[in-house]
Amino acid sequence: MLFFKWWYGAGFEDQIKRFKRRVLYFSDFFSLSLLTATLFSPYKNDVDSYSGGVTAQIQQLKEGLISRFVGFWIRLAIIIAGSTVVGVLSVFNCLWLAIWAMMPLLVIALPVIGVLQ
Q1: Cβ atoms within 10 A of the Cβ of 53, count?
Q2: Looking at the domain assignment, is residue 6 inside a domain?
Q3: Which of 22, 43, 53, 108 could link 70 by a cystine bridge, Cβ 3.0 to 4.6 Å?
């Protein structure tokens, strides 16, 4: 009985903690919160400052907009990839928790099924 108490108590809680650590690891690996916060920032902060006339300021504006456009799409692609990885990981972890919950029952049920056949 102590085994079942541990399995469905502390063991199950440990599996949930591992699940949370994996999700946080991959969220940090892809820097999802940082990428979301800087979604519209220039790509690699590639913005120069020009001193000069109107032509130089227009050129600076164009380069800044292009840099922001490129940065947006690259960050968005990484956010989508990271979110996909975290989502797939969450599905597999939920399946693992279901398997974890059924394992002790399978240890009892499979020999009984084997004897009955």
Answers
A1: 8
A2: no
A3: 43
Distance CA 63, CA 42 (A): 10
**Residue 68: CA count within 13 A, CB half-sphere:** 10
Q: Using a pLDDT cut of 70, give the percent of the chain over it.
A: 96
Q: Where are the alpha helices (DSSP H) in the chain?
A: 2-8, 10-29, 32-37, 54-116
Residue 23 near residue 91, CB atoms below 8 Å: no
Decide if 41 contacts 78 (C-beta within 8 A).
Answer: no
Give the domain extent around 63. 13-116
Tally of domains in the chain: 1
| Cβ neighbours for 56, distance < 8 A, ≥ 6 positions apart | 50
Q: Which residue has the tokens 């902060």?
A: 45
pTM: 0.77
Cα distances (Å, whole numbers) of residue 65 to 9, 25, 40, 47, 79:
55, 33, 10, 9, 21
The answer to the question of residue 5 being in a domain is no
